[in-house]
Design goal:
Chain A: Its cofactor is thiamine diphosphate. The complex is a heterodimer of chains A (about 325) and B (about 375). By secondary structure, chain A is of the alpha/beta class. Chain A is built from twelve helices and 14 strands. Chain B is α/β, with parallel strands linked by helices. Chain B has eleven helices and eight strands. In chain B, about 50% of the residues are buried. The chains are: A alpha/beta (about 325), B alpha/beta (about 375).
Chain lengths: ~325, ~375
Amino acid sequence: MSVITYRQALRDTLRAEMVRDENVLVMGEEIGVFEGSYKITEGLLKEFGPRRVKDTPIAEEGFVGAAIGAAMLGLRPVVELMTINFSLIAIDQIINHAAKIYGMFGGQTSVPMVIRTPGGGGQQLGATHSQNIELFYSFIPGLKVLAPSTPAEASAMLRAAIRDDDPVLFLENLGLYNSKGEVPDDYAQPSNDNVATIGRAKVTREGSDITLIGYSRMAMVATQVAEKLAEEDISVEVVDLCSLRPLDRQTFVDSVKKTGAAVICEDDWLTYGIGAEIAASIQEGAFDYLDAPVRRVAMAEVPMPYAKPLETAALPSVESISTAIKETLSAVGKRVG
Amino acid sequence: MADTAKPKTGTARSSGTRRRGRRDTAAGLAGETPDVLLDYYRQMLFIRRFEERTAQAYTQARIGGYCHLNLGEEATVVGLMTALQQRDYLFTNYRDHGYAIGKGMDPKRVMAELYGRSDGVSRGWGGSMHMYDTETRMLGGYGIVGGQLPLATGAALAISYRGGDEVVMCQMGDGTTNIGAWHESLNIAKLWNLPIVFVVINNFTGMGTTVDMSSAEPELYKRGSAFRIEGERVDGRDVLAVRDTAARLVERAREEQTPFLLEAWSHRMKGHSVVDPAKYRTDEQKDEARSEENDPIALFGARLSEAGILTDELRDELAASVKEEVAEAADFAENSPHPDVSTLFDYTYATPVPNESRRMPADPVFAE
């Protein structure tokens, strides 16, 4: 095993897939000469040239749509959208076209493409650049939505996304790019076949008092919460959703059946957010096992402010999640550290 | 840039130049053999009768949803489709029945798609606006205005990426020249030197909004100039003019690996869709759109008669055989089975993965 950043896991896996398959090309704003706003595509233009590493104009609808059309003819484009906020400019192509073409034409052509894009607040980027709108895409049959939280997952899931024949929205996170974790030594080899299973959640830490569910950056935060609460003798089981569509409900429902309580932490807004779907699934799948109402810890429902104290207050944190867990446990008479 | 008649200030009212009394010689018919000319005539007539049958089936509720017809633009459809090689790709908007047939799809299966049956070209999943066929390379009618432009541009990118010699034709209506996808796609196509011909069908009206009401530059073929894309305009009522102009641009796109723009103008004989009575048009405008001098089939038929190619006898013969073939298509559609409900979840994903939902509306999320 080696320890690398989430960023490096993505970059090296992308490179390995380009070496492996001539049909893989990357497209996006500033990904070539500039080497990517977040340097995920660093070195790719030098190695593969402008045919396979295409700098695009600032025209999200145009180049996302072009990637879909190229995928219809059998290429496997990996598109970078600088942030998920900019996906709104391409949303017609993603939802009305990428997600529909396979079904709408009776399964005659697939759309094997990946849209990589980071979400994430907390960078003082203000209201239009701090949203977490993966819900929009997770809502749509025909799309697959992946949200890795560790370098190892990022690598295995990106490989899965590129090799899958359907359009995949691959959610990264600004707050994760520099985070580190273990990966298999051969993760960057083109011959590596360590491909994640799309549509599976994971129990990333076992526990017995309560289930804490998250994805992307919040899955990492959930692990930090579990470690902190362990010091107070509270045993938290952590579930990383990994895949937002398809959604693996059984894994978190089984966990809740074991612990009897659940808290969901999410970087998006609470009302109609991803957590609402998780909570609804828990009540349907584990109603008789619940000892307390399911709690959600989510972003404050405001356009994200720029000022640091306001931004920090609006985001879920280790502290706010810990509080929600303790309140849930005390409501059912379980011990609170 | 060529300026072939009509639009100028755009509306259907200004009559522009006409081809009245024009005398066709062998040269006027592009030196084509009678067989080819009669084939075009038959194809145009076939689309006319097919669309009329479609309208009838729609009013009988055999066809549902939205339904847009190619009535009045048969010469444009046949001219464009005969300009393409079989290996070339086509993307269109939702007014796609004639194009599907012209690109080589079996009319029976096109009609079955309209009926929503399992033998339809899109297995009954698409309907009127979404004809698709991998084999004939008609890569879809698209219901969202402008949606097909980025896709078609991407198909041309894939051709260029592989060094292929196919060309993409991307058809759209006049209203599409105002949507963002138009500007983004033309820019990308020129920037990346892609082999694609964008074709604007100008019938002077996007639903009920005229070109003059919606386009600051109503001379639509000029609108590629912002991207240094050469544009031409052609009289869309003239099948040979459309074919020759389109074929020239298609071959130039193939040779020069660069995009072109073609505007073909013609009249929409009916409303925007089958259910639209077109009340926004004056009686004078309606008469003009339906007049013989704007009817591409009447125009071409007269030219062929004048040249002694289309005799009255032959005209009757063709009419009868077209009528029969259209009736066969309708019968085929009528008798094709409805898609089985058990196939409802067959086309959500191409690569199966765990936890795909196969839940029917009242099913519990967790099966016992």
